[in-house]
Amino acid sequence: MSKDIKKVVLAYSGGLDTSVILQWIKEEYGAEVVTYTADVGQGDEVEEARVKALETGAIEAITEDLRKEFVEDYVFPAFRTSALYEGYYLMGTSLARPVISKGLVRAAIETGADAIAHGATGKGNDQVRFELSAYALKPDIKVIAPWREWDLKGRADCLAYADARGIPTPVTPEMPYSMDANMLHISYEGGVLEDPWVPPPRGMFSMTVDPENAPDEPEYITIGFEAGDPVSVNGVRLSPVELLGSLNEIGGRHGIGRVDIVENRFVGMKSRGVYETPGGTLMYHAHRAVESLTLDREVVHLRDELSNRYAEMVYNGFWFAPEREALQHFMDDLQKSVTGEARLKLYKGLATIDGRRSDTHALYDEATVTFEADDVYNQGDAEGFIRLQSLRLRTFAEKRLGEGE
Length: 405
Description:
By secondary structure, this protein is of the alpha/beta class. The protein has helices spanning 16-29, 45-55, 67-80, 92-111, 126-137, 155-164, 240-253, 278-294, 297-316, 322-334, 366-369, 381-402; strands spanning 7-11, 32-39, 60-65, 115-117, 143-144, 178-181, 186-189, 219-226, 229-233, 236-237, 258-264, 270-276, 340-347, 350-357. Helix 7 (240-253) packs across helix 8 (278-294) and helix 9 (297-316) packs antiparallel against helix 10.
């Protein structure tokens, strides 16, 4: 434990962990603490955190509105790749960590701090994401990770520590799961959710209604895209932040975007995570629908192979790594033709494609695919195509049958 650390910038949410960490750093390091709270769409929590930080010992409480940067420079680039971690997760937490880390490092430089600190546990992914991002941005940065240093063993110890020092905490034993919110999603984990057989408590979700209670009539919406990015909803152009907010509201009222998975953490263990991502789910399906018209077959197949690698990079914390940046350039280049519209049908937790079109970049040719008479495609050509494709199969079969199999 370095005693030459005199000032620390703490990534601060105002929740149990960071509330305890603020006081712990003051006591153990004898350092001044500046809190940093990034607004990535968690609402009133930002101002509440600022006030609480000053009331509980911070010498300064910095808040910064990063919503525009988060959506434009992190969410949209990732969605251009159609990346899903392990087939389900749209990575709302993974995408928020690098933008928060960038702000945290910036605050440390501006305040002349000796170190940064975070409240991620030694079992989780976030410690990796925060620290890899910080080192990529400022190689000589010092990082304090209390969960890897102190002798507090869990939530109960933190509650006792806070109670002994009069630190108000929003978490009680009666609500023992944790949650993390931003513009893209809300994640839930821990407590009762640690048993993967136990369903999420009713009333836990806050961005989406229960699909059973969603409207009994479907709603149809149209999302417009230009060069892979969503730009409009129902013909109305919106800024990225406005667009995601609008889709969150629309998808949320139909109960769309809930995911309950057991995922593989980077540190080596499996964990159960529950997520709600209403607007992101609508963007994902609409984007793929427009891509189906505008991307070449081999290009989209190659993209799908690489999008899994991209998802792993982001999930594991390598946003600022050269391989992620290089792959992003490739993904962005092939998205230049992804311009068009997709119409979605929203009903009882489901979003299904109801139509798609692209006036300028569609590779779909109705004259070629029609089952009616046409002057474009000679069906007899397929015979030679099939004979060539079957050549290796026939050769293999002849060899096998000749050996008496």
